[in-house]
Design a protein that fits this description.
This protein is an alpha+beta fold. The chain contains 4 helices and 4 strands, in the order E-H-E-E-H-H-E-H. It comes from Niastella yeongjuensis.
């Protein structure tokens, strides 16, 4: 199992338009990405910091996603800037104890 945090900032777009142009159309697509266990959408409006916490079946699944047309489309949107990604191995045994996994 693998975890990933992707962050970005928004540029010249309202919250309502961000939700309409990115969150609402992308969520159903992401729900069907091969190897994605879950995505938690993140937002800190005051700091203009957005992103997601992704839980993947494997690093390979994450890597395939990161090279997909979907990711290319998202990062090419004119209102998305300063995209960064960090990934981590998941300690499954400890995560089960702390209810991070079921």
């Amino acid at each position: 199992m693998h975890a990933q945090i992707i962050t970005y900032q928004l540029n010249d777009i309202s919250q309502a338009e961000y939700l309409k142009q990115m969150v609402e159309p992308d969520a159903p697509i992401l729900a069907n990405v091969k190897g994605l266990i879950s995505k938690v959408w993140l937002a800190d409006k005051e700091k203009n910091a957005y992103g997601g916490f992704y839980l993947w079946e494997s690093k390979t699944a994450m890597d395939e996603f990161m090279h997909s047309d979907l990711v290319k489309a998202v990062v090419s949107r004119p209102f998305v800037k300063n995209v960064s990604s960090a990934d981590y191995e998941v300690n499954e045994k400890a995560s089960l104890i702390t209810r991070g996994l079921k």
